[in-house]
Amino acid sequence: MPFLESVTRGRGIPRERLEGVAEHYRSLGGKSPINEITRRQAEALRNKLRAAGAPRAVYVGQRHAAPFVEEALRRMAADGVRSAVGFCLAAYRSEASLERYVAAVEDARARIGPDAPSIEFAGPWFDHPLFIAAIAARIKELGPSEEAPWVFTAHSIPCAMAKESVYVEELRETAALAAKACGRREWALAFTSRSGRPDDAWLEPDISKAIRARAAEGAKELTLIPIGFVADHVEVLYDLDVEAKAAADAAGVVLRRAGTVGDHPLFIDMIADVVANGVPDDPSLGRSSAVAVFRDGRRREKAGAGSAACFCFPGSAEPPCLRPAASRHR
Asked: Can you give the pTM of this predicted structure?
């Protein structure tokens, strides 16, 4: 509960909702595996850099659970570190997935004072070839059938936040590249882990709705590919393996899920490459979610709050983010 209270502080989430989410953790043994996975990723990165002849210290800092960001920065200062490259383990940039972490680092540095190391953040990696290769490797490990539709999944965020970022554009690029790497033309994107007030519009379709829609089209099997997270933690293990599976069982659909990249060697190779490249020519790309610069040279700026664009239902005349609040959950 302290973790969940930290994550949701100031967001007006009812206590009963937190208790419900806490039950997800209890049903999976009382904790999330993300700390252990993150430790493995950090150790693998240390080993990779050492083997490449470019050893570096690697520290882990978290916003809502130990080791906290401030703990990591204080340890770095004690170790004599004066500057470092920050790597945020979130591939798709939004206020929640990037900018709050950048702010947490800056707030912690301010509390530490002049001894705090300076942190410059690595650039985006949502379309890095090694990231795509790691996702493709996980899909191939699953061995999906040719007939089963593919649904890539990611954490939902409020539609208003999506318009102030390039979160969805980056997600779609990753999905398209991963599908192409596997020789797949058709795929869909769905969202999980919705929270917040019921009347707020969040990115859709929810994965359970997507499952029911595919079942109505005659699908007997579905392949889920969670690209929104880099670890099999509770939002994957419960939201997909329990809740989505229940929806699939009720619809008569067999659900098969690919693993997240986790500590796959290709993903570790990618982190090492991104860290070695350091800060991008435009440092704001490591700190802001306002602009996406793709590897093929394309550039996409955020739509902005006043935009009539809808990211979750681009072909709909009445998307959820533009419908009256009372009708959004029909």
From this structure: 0.91
